[in-house]
Amino acid sequence: MSRKTVRHKVQGPTSHSYFSQRLRLHYVDWGNEDAPPMLLIHGGRDHCRNWDWVAEAFRDDYHIIAPDLRGHGDSQWMIGGGYNINDYVYDIAQLLHQTKLTPLTIIGHSLGGNLALRYTGLYPENVIKVVAIEGMGPPPSFTQQMEDQTNLERVRSWIADLRNASGRMPRRYASVEEAYERMQKENPHLSPERAYHLTVHGVNQNEDGSYSWKFDNYVRVFAPRPPETDELQEIWRAITCPTLLFRGTESWASNPLEDGRASYFRNVQVENVEGAGHWVHHDRLEEFLRLTKAFLKA
Fold first, then answer.
1. How many Å apart are CA 155 and CA 138, to the nearest integer?
2. What is the pLDDT of residues 14-53, one digit of tens each?
3. Within a 10 A sphere around the Cβ of 105, how many other Cβ atoms?
4. Phi, psi of 61 (to 5 degrees)
5. Which own/partner pairs from 136-139 qualify as long-range (CB within 8 Å, at least 24 positions apart)?
6. What is the pLDDT of residues 173-218, one digit of tens each?
7. H or E stretch including 282?
8. Strand, helix or coil at 247?
9. Which of 89, 73, 83 is nearest to 28 (CA)?
10. Which CATH architecture has domain 14-145+227-297?
11. How far apart are the first and last CA of the chain?
12. How would DSSP label each residue in 225-246?
C-alpha cells in the first residue's frame, strides 16, 4: 500500500490543547459551534482521529469534540507509570468544565465507553444521551477470575507487568506502509482506506526516520485494584439519561442482556451487531450510524 494508492478524503477538524493535572492534553473540534455538543471518546491504544467517519456523519447536526486521552495520540504521557481510570475520568470532566459544552451527548468506545458511562453516572445532569461501544469493562467471567486472586497476587502481578512495560521498546516500522500493514492485520474488517487513515494519524516519525505508534506502552498496565463490580453498578444505576450499549457478536465482550449488566440501567437499549468485532463503529459503520441516529432522534 502506497500513499498514492489511498487518498486522505476526510476534511479534518482543528486541533486544541487543554491542561489536566499539569498534563497538556489534545483534542480536536469539528466546528458548528451553534449546534448541540457531542463528545467522542476513543479506546485504549487508539487516538481521537479514529472517530473521523462518525464525526463526518454527525458534524452537520452537532458541535463535535474528540480528545486524545492521556498517554494517547498527541496528548502528553504520564510521569511515572500509573494510568488510573479515575484520572481519565478527571480529564474528561476537566475538558467539559473548560469548554462549557454541557449538557451534551457522549459516544465512547471500549475504554472511552467506560469513561462515558462513568462520567454520565457522576454527572447525570450534564448528559442528554450516552452511547457506549463495548464500554462495560471485562465480562463477568473475567471479573470472577480477578475476584479469585488475593490482593497480594494482584499487586505482584502489577509490579511484574509494570517492570515488563518499562523494558518494552516501542516497535519501529521502516515506513508508514509497514505500520499500515500491521493495522490492517490487527483488524481485517477495516477497509484499506480506513486502515491507512488510522495509521497516518496513529504514528510519529522517530529521529532515525522510522515510525512508532503514538501511545505510551504503560497504558497497557492496569492498577492492581480489586474488581469494581459494586462501584460500576452504583455508577450505572445513577445514569438517568437514555443509554445505548453496543456489542459486536464477533468480539470477546459478553451480551449485557444475557449477563445481567443491562438491568442496572434505568433506560437502556442494547444492540448486538452481527459481523462486527470490538470496533463496531469501524466494522459495521453504516449499521452503527443507522442505529445511533435512530437512538438520538427518539
1. 19
2. 999 999 999 999 999 999 999 999 999 999 999 999 999 9
3. 22
4. -110, -15
5. 136/232, 136/245, 136/253, 136/256, 136/261, 137/228, 137/232, 139/252, 139/253, 139/254, 139/259
6. 999 999 999 999 988 889 999 999 999 999 999 999 999 999 999 9
7. helix 280-283
8. strand
9. 73
10. 3-Layer(aba) Sandwich (3.40)
11. 42
12. PPP-HHHHHHHHHH--S-EEEE
| Residue 289: band (very low, low, confident or very high) from pLDDT cuts 50, 70, 90 | very high
Alpha carbon 123 to chain centroid, angstroms: 19
| Distance in angstroms (rounded) separating the CA atoms of residues 206 and 146 | 38
Which residue do the cell numbers 491542561 mark? 19
Phi-psi region of 209 (alpha: psi -120 to 50; beta: other; left: phi over 0): left
Neighbours of 22 (CB within 10 A): 7
Distance CA 260, CA 136 (A): 12
Q: What is the pLDDT of residue 265?
A: 98
Residues in contact with 28: Cβ distance below 8 Å, sequence separation at least 6, in sequence order: 12, 13, 14, 15, 16, 48, 49, 65, 66
Residue 5 has pLDDT above 60, yes or no: no
Cell of 123: 454527572
